[in-house]
Structures are given as structure tokens and as C-alpha cells.
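A.,

Following up on our hallway conversation. C-alpha cells first:
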């Protein structure tokens, strides 16, 4: 009888999960086509529907936050960016409570906080005390698995050191983290883009030019929507580098 009670208690302690492997595979396939408006809308609608039925399903929570972070990253309006960043953050705070040992929601909560902070302004975010919350989640993600999503936790930490105002800003540390990600994932175009921006800010325009060429000439096969977005953004950075080198 004691064994039965123990087994029941263990089952009750497991994170609630309703999503089938087939559903998760379908969601991931839609995310891979997220540039397409119809696919993105279908993914968003399906996630909302499934989360209504299973609001504590970790696999649904982190995939919902993943889409929100992607949408926030591409938002041209700071008001929308702020809303989406906050939604990603809140969604993955639920996920962290369900499965704190998993990397996805630790990282995506940090990404949501970071996006929200960009939208409201870094100085305001610092005054609101978001730096500590951001680092708590991001440092946990780095400890669990810094290689998640092609080294995204390393990139986020590098970007953190880049975006902080003086005297907190640390461009050298930023470069180290990007190079660590590049060493492990040499095809990650966002790593080269961030590296180029950081080198440019550090008065190393020629090295920045070399980094931005990696973005222009790189393959997007690892994640076509992500790769194409980064290559598009690289055009503005390339123009700034060219102006600096005149």
C-alpha cells in the first residue's frame, strides 16, 4: 500500500502535460515556417487553444513563449514589442514554476525581459529593477545548457554587456561570449551580427567589417526565417561600418 501511495505522489508531482508528440511535432513544423503569415497565425491560434485546455503544459508554454519572442524581435513598434516581451516573460515564468530544471523557459523568460527592457528603454528598465530578474533567469539557463538554440543564452548575455550604459558596459566580455557561441555554432549568423555591432562600438571597424561579411555570405539553412531576418538587419550595420571606414 505504501508503494502505491508513493507511486501516486510521484505521478502527481510530474508536470502536467497534455500535448502529444504528434501535436508538438506539428507546432515545431509551423514554427519552422513562421515567416509565412498563415503558418504563424495557425501556430498562434493552436497554441492558445491548447493552452486553454492545458495551461500548465510545459511543452506548450515554452513553445508559446518562443513564438512571442520571435514576434517581439521583429516588432517595429516599441509598444507592441513591450506587450509581446511581457507576454513571453509571463508565459515562461509559469513554465519555470512547472520545470525549473529545464533550459527553455529559463532562457525565454530572460529573452522576454530583455525585449521588454529594450522597448521601455534600458535606463528605465534598470530603475525598475529588471536587471536582476533578467540575470537570474539567464544565468540559470547558461548553467543548465548555454548551447540551447545555437548558443542563444551566450548571445543574450553578450548583448546584455553590449547594451548596458557606461560604466556597466563591457564590450570585451560581450565579444568573448559571441566568440564562444561562434566556436560552437560557426553558422549562427546572429552571433556574427552582434559581434560586428560590438566591434564597431569598440572602434574596431575593420574587424566589424569582417564579421558582417560572415553574415552576408553565410548560409541560412540552419533556420531560414532567422537567417534571412539577420541578413536583412546586417544591411544597416554594414552601412554604418562603411561610413566609419570612409
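Then the amino acids I'd put at each of the 246 positions:
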Amino acid at each position: 500500500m505504501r508503494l502505491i501511495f508513493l507511486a501516486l505522489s510521484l505521478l502527481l508531482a510530474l508536470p502536467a502535460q497534455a500535448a502529444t508528440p504528434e501535436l508538438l511535432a506539428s507546432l515545431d513544423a509551423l514554427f519552422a515556417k513562421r515567416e509565412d503569415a498563415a503558418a504563424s497565425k495557425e501556430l498562434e491560434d493552436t497554441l492558445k487553444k491548447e493552452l486553454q485546455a492545458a495551461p500548465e503544459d510545459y511543452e506548450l508554454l515554452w513553445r508559446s513563449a518562443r513564438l512571442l519572442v520571435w514576434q517581439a524581435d521583429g516588432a517595429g513598434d516599441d509598444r507592441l514589442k513591450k506587450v509581446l516581451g511581457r507576454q513571453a516573460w509571463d508565459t515562461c515564468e509559469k513554465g519555470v514554476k512547472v520545470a525549473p530544471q529545464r533550459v527553455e523557459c529559463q532562457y525565454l523568460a530572460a529573452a522576454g525581459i530583455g525585449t521588454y527592457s529594450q522597448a521601455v528603454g534600458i535606463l528605465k528598465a534598470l530603475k525598475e529593477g529588471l536587471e536582476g530578474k533578467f540575470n537570474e533567469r539567464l544565468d540559470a539557463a547558461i548553467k543548465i545548457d548555454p548551447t540551447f538554440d545555437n548558443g542563444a543564452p551566450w548571445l543574450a548575455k553578450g548583448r546584455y554587456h553590449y547594451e548596458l550604459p557606461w560604466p556597466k558596459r563591457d564590450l570585451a566580455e560581450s565579444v568573448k561570449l559571441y566568440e564562444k557561441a561562434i566556436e560552437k555554432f560557426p553558422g549562427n549568423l546572429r552571433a556574427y551580427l552582434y559581434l560586428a555591432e560590438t566591434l564597431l562600438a569598440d572602434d574596431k571597424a575593420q574587424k566589424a567589417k569582417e564579421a558582417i561579411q560572415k553574415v552576408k555570405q553565410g548560409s541560412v539553412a540552419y533556420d531560414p526565417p532567422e537567417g534571412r531576418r539577420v541578413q536583412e538587419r546586417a544591411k544597416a550595420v554594414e552601412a554604418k561600418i562603411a561610413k566609419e571606414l570612409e
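The two ends are 80 Å apart (CA to CA). Curious whether your intuition agrees with the design.

B.
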